[in-house]
Each structure stands twice: as structure tokens, then as C-alpha cells.
Design goal:
This protein has helices spanning 3-14, 17-33, 36-53, 62-75, 98-103, 109-124, and strands at residues 80-85, 90-95, 131-136, 143-150. By secondary structure, it is an alpha+beta fold. A 4-stranded antiparallel sheet has the order 1-2-4-3. A hairpin with a 4-residue loop joins strand 1 and strand 2. It is globular, with a radius of gyration of 15 Å.
């Protein structure tokens, strides 16, 4: 099996078929009823509620924070995250979101939801006093990339 077939197999299993039609219909309805910015804010608030319902234990290092986040994502089959420390920012790469499968490419839902969840968790960890979480555009529908950096 080639890598593309493996990825397609993963996508097929990452979101239960019973939810795909419902999520697509809901996404279309929300997209028609709300401007993109409002839809992104709504999904960020939902992500914050999710993170609030799944609090993380205190973490002394970025590695410990990443492990706690991945324990939550693993427990609900929402993919995984890699935290990359850079000299001027923290980058979060999230892969395997079921929204990527359910809603297809080009949706901002997964990004808004994940951005809200990460913002809430990092704020609770005391990391966002002068920083914020922002989604970075990517052409890869299987990845959501966020930067945690100074807000200007």
C-alpha cells in the first residue's frame, strides 16, 4: 500500500460515517447564515468550551503540555499535536482532525475549533499574557498549524 492509500484509509476511519452528512449539512447552514469571521469566532468559542470541559494538569515544560494535550486528543480520537519551540514563537501542528474528513478541504471550522481550544489551554497554563494563538494558512487539509506569538 502506498502512503496516499494509507492516508485515505486513515481519513475514512477518522470520522464516523454517521456524523459526516450531519456535519456537512450543519456547516453549509452555518456558512450561509454567518460571515466567515463570525463562523470562525463561533467555532473558537466552541473550542474554548471543549477545552474548559477537558482541563489540563499543570505543566512545567512545553513537552509536558504537549503530552497533556495529546492525551485529551487521543481520548476522543481528535488526532495529535506537535509543539515546536522556535526562537520567537511556539508553533503547534495539529494533524488528524475529524473535521478535515467530515467537512473536506477549505473549511475553517477545524481551525477555529482548534484555535479556541489551544488558546484556552495556553491561557490556563499562563502562557498568553501578551501572546495569542493564530492559525496559519496551509495547503494541507490534514494539518492545522498555529503560531503562539506576541500580539502587535
Amino acid at each position: 500500500m502506498n502512503p496516499a492509500e494509507l492516508l485515505d484509509g486513515y481519513r475514512d476511519r477518522s470520522c464516523a460515517r454517521q456524523w459526516r452528512g450531519f456535519l456537512r449539512a450543519m456547516a453549509v447552514e452555518f456558512d450561509q447564515a454567518l460571515p466567515d469571521e463570525e463562523s470562525a469566532r463561533l467555532m473558537a468559542r466552541i473550542g474554548q468550551r471543549f477545552a474548559d470541559a477537558h482541563p489540563l494538569p499543570p505543566a512545567a515544560t512545553v513537552e509536558a503540555l504537549q503530552a497533556s494535550v495529546n492525551a485529551v486528543w487521543s481520548g476522543c480520537e481528535w488526532g495529535w499535536a506537535a509543539f515546536e519551540e522556535r526562537h520567537d514563537q511556539l508553533r503547534i501542528v495539529h494533524a488528524g482532525s475529524p473535521f478535515a474528513v467530515a467537512l473536506g478541504p477549505g473549511n475553517g471550522w477545524q481551525h477555529g475549533f482548534l484555535e479556541g481550544a489551544y488558546r484556552h489551554w495556553l491561557r490556563a497554563a499562563g502562557m498568553l499574557a501578551v501572546l495569542d494563538v493564530r492559525h496559519l494558512a496551509t495547503e494541507n487539509r490534514d494539518l492545522s498549524i498555529f503560531t503562539v506569538a506576541r500580539v502587535f
